[in-house]
């Protein structure tokens, strides 16, 4: 069974001008082999490897800066294990 | 297809029941498959028209992980199998997805002749510079001085420069990327789908377990950083200048994009010339 942990990053800005996430990242924890590609090549440093283990003993990534995610899905393209992907957030405001 | 937020966009192209796959942590083969799936999405190619053929090796396993009509042939024989498919059913889009050893060593003769005949195949060669699956033996692509299980004191044979080889043999589309160049690789794959004739895409890919480890090059991520640092994009670079070395620069880009009649067109042309009205094309193949 796949365990999909979704980090939603659609927080509202506290102050005007604060960055607002334009993407959400989804991590299929059980597939990850902790290669670190997604962490290294995320252009805005949204991710870090966590200290948690999956059932195979790998440390999957987690989201440390959700507000910086652009939804570019580069993490999704780099992942050799199909364990991470992102979707653009529909901001609705047309902005 | 409606967008499902809880599903990876590449999931429909994978046999999810077989995941996680066998590839090692930091192996680049999965990244190439990821790019391939995205090229399928981008190019909107009809999946019913697509067949994927692999040989034997770690890369050869791709045939078993894609949710497409696929076949895992014997070692070195992906191209002849794919040639047969294409000749029997010219409407198929046939992709050959295999390793450097499979395509250029035991299958090397098939590679050059399919390029010479300009058979309409899209060949994706995952080049990890080694025979990975069998334990890291020297391949015809292993660069000089690299340490392998069969050359523990370093290789000394000259290696094949694959883009140069297939250009000389007649390929019409030739590109090389590394697994660092995910967007460019996906774009080249889409481009090859719309190209008639023998297309060859070489993907330089880490094998941390058997190549990088023996050569003290670190893990998959270290290799990706090396690709990032040492790659130079040179579209149209003369292929005799793109040979690989152990630690040196990696020239990437689209090297060749030219047109010449493919096998089917040459065959038809010859028969029409020789037989005139007596030449009748056979109709569609019906499989019952
Ligand atoms: C006829 C035959 N000879 C030899 C082998 C052993 N063999 C299996 S895979 C392989 C090399 C694969 O190298 P490559 O195509 O580069 O794939 P990789 O594992 O590196 O992805 C060899 C020699 C075989 N399976 N069949
Ligand atoms: S979608 Fe882009 S910005 Fe967001 S985590 Fe992935 S790589 Fe980083
Ligand atoms: S790229 Fe994939 S396998 Fe590698 S650490 Fe990220 S999620 Fe895990
Ligand atoms: S042995 Fe090398 S090529 Fe094979 S799966 Fe492991 S890292 Fe990949
Ligand atoms: Mg190989």
Structure characterization notes:
- The complex is a heterodimer of chains A (95) and B (288).
- Helices cover 11% and strands 22% of the residues of chain A.
- By secondary structure, chain A is an alpha+beta fold.
- The longest helix of chain A is centred in the middle third of the chain and has 5 residues, at 37-41.
- Chain A starts with a strand and ends in a 7-residue tail after the last strand.
- By secondary structure, chain B is an alpha/beta fold.
- Chain B is 33% helix and 16% strand.
- An 8-stranded mixed beta sheet of chain B has the order 2-1-3-4-6-5-8-7, sandwiched between helices.
- In chain B, α2 (62-65) links the parallel β1 and β2 (69-72).
- In chain B, α1 crosses α7 (182-193) and α4 packs across α5.
- Chain B is globular and about 65 Å long.
- In chain B, 49% of the residues are buried.
- The mean pLDDT of chain B is 96.
- The chains are: A alpha+beta (95), B alpha/beta (288).
- Bound molecules: thiamine diphosphate (TPP), iron/sulfur cluster (3 copies) and magnesium ion.
- One iron/sulfur cluster is lined by residues 32-38, 60-61, 78-79, 81, 83-84 of chain A.
Shape of chain B: globular
Architecture per CATH nomenclature, i.e. the level-2 architecture of chain A? 2-Layer Sandwich
Number of domains as seen in the coordinates of chain A: 1
The overall strand count of chain B is 8
Distance between the termini of chain A: 38 Å
Distance between the termini of chain B: 30 Å
Low-confidence stretches of chain B: none
Strand order of the largest sheet of chain A: 1-2-5
Please give the share of residues in helix of chain A: 10-25%
Oligomer classification: heterodimer
Q: Note the total helix count of chain B.
A: 10
* Biggest interface, chains and residue tallies: A-B, 28 and 34 residues
Quick one: biggest sheet of chain A? 3 strands, antiparallel
What is the CATH C-level name of chain A? Alpha Beta
């Amino acid at each position: 069974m796949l365990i999909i942990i979704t980090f939603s990053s659609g927080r509202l800005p506290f102050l005007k001008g604060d960055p607002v996430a334009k993407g959400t990242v989804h991590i299929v924890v059980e597939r990850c082999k902790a290669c670190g590609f997604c962490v290294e090549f995320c252009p805005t440093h949204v991710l870090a490897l966590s200290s948690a283990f999956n059932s195979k003993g790998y440390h999957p990534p987690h989201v440390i800066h959700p507000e910086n995610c652009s939804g570019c899905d580069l993490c999704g393209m780099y992942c050799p294990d199909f364990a991470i992907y992102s979707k653009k957030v529909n901001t609705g405001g047309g902005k | 297809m409606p967008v499902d937020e809880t599903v990876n966009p590449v999931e429909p192209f994978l046999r999810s029941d077989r995941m996680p796959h066998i590839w090692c942590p930091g192996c680049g083969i999965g990244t190439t498959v990821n790019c391939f799936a995205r090229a399928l999405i981008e190019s909107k190619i009809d999946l019913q028209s697509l067949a994927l053929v692999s040989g034997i090796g770690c890369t050869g396993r791709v045939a078993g992980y894609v949710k497409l009509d696929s076949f895992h042939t014997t070692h070195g024989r992906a191209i002849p199998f794919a040639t047969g498919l294409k000749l029997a059913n010219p409407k198929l889009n046939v992709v050959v997805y295999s390793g450097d050893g499979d395509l250029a060593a035991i299958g090397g003769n098939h590679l050059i002749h399919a390029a010479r005949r300009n058979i309409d195949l899209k060949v994706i060669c995952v080049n990890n510079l080694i025979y990975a699956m069998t334990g890291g033996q020297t391949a015809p692509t292993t660069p000089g001085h690299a340490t392998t299980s069969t050359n523990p004191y370093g290789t000394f044979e000259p290696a094949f420069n694959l883009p140069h080889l297939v250009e000389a043999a007649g390929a019409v589309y030739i590109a090389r990327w590394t697994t660092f160049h995910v967007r460019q690789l996906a774009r080249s794959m889409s481009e090859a789908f719309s190209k008639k004739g023998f297309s060859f895409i070489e993907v330089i890919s880490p094998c941390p377990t058997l190549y990088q480890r023996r050569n003290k090059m670190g893990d998959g991520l270290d290799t990706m950083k090396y690709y990032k640092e040492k790659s130079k994009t040179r579209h149209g670079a003369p292929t005799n200048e793109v040979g690989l070395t152990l630690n040196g620069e990696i020239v990437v880009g689209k090297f060749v994009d030219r047109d010449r009649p493919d096998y089917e067109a040459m065959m038809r042309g010859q028969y029409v010339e020789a037989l005139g009205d007596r030449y009748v094309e056979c109709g569609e193949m019906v499989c019952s």
